[in-house]
Amino acid sequence: MARLIQIETEEAVNNLDDILEVPNIDSFIFGYCDLSASVGELGRTSQPKTYRLIKQAGRKLLEKGKSFGFSHSNPPDNMIRFYLENGANIVSAGVDFDYVLRGAVNMRNRVNSVRSAVSG
C-alpha cells in the first residue's frame, strides 16, 4: 500500500514542512490545476508562479527523500520534461478510455492500409 497526498494550493506549499511531519506519507502528487488557480493562474498550469511553487516544493521533498510527481490524462512533453528535470519520479498518465480509443484508431488505420494495398 502506498499513501500519496496531493499538494493543491500555495498554502500547502508554504506549510510543506508541517505536512512532512505527518507520519506514513509515502509520496506527493501536485494538483497543478488547483495549484495554478490558488495563485491566480487558473488553467495556465505552466506559468511562472505555479512553476516556482512546484520547484520550491520539489526541492524540499527531494531534500527529505520523498517521491513526488503529477497525474495527467495526456500530458504534453514539456510538462513531463519540467517535472523530470525538477526531480519528479512519479508520472501518472493516461486513462482507460484514451487507451481504448487509440487502439481503435490504430486498428482502423491498419485496416485502411491493407484495404488500400488490396484494392490498389
Strand-helix topology:
Elements (H helix, E strand, L loop, with lengths): L3 E4 L2 H5 L1 H5 L6 E4 L1 H7 L9 H16 L3 E6 L4 H9 L4 E4 L2 H24 L1
Question: What report would you give on this structure?
Answer:
This protein has 120 residues and is α/β, with parallel strands linked by helices. It has a single domain, classed as Phosphoenolpyruvate-binding domains (TIM Barrel, Alpha-Beta Barrel). Helices cover 55% and strands 15% of the residues. The protein contains six helices and four strands, in the order E-H-H-E-H-H-E-H-E-H. It has helices at residues 10-14, 16-20, 32-38, 48-63, 77-85, 96-119, and strands spanning 4-7, 27-30, 67-72, 90-93. Strands 1-2-3-4 form a four-stranded parallel sheet. Strand 3, helix 5 (77-85) and strand 4 (90-93) form a beta-alpha-beta unit.
The CATH class, by name, is Alpha Beta
Number of strands: 4
Mean pLDDT across residues: 89
CATH topology: TIM Barrel
Largest sheet: 4 strands, parallel
The helix content, as a percent range, equals 55-70%
SS-based class: alpha/beta
* Morphology call: elongated
Low-confidence parts lasting 5 or more residues at pLDDT below 50?
A: none
Give the spatial strand order of the biggest sheet: 1-2-3-4
Oligomer description: single chain
| Whole-number count of domains | 1
The Rg value, from CA coordinates, equals 19 Å
Q: What letter string, H or E per element, gives the SSE order?
A: EHHEHHEHEH
CATH architecture, by name, is: Alpha-Beta Barrel
Distance between the termini: 55 Å
The CATH H-level homologous superfamily: Phosphoenolpyruvate-binding domains
Number of helix segments? 6
In terms of DSSP E residues, the strand content is 15-25%
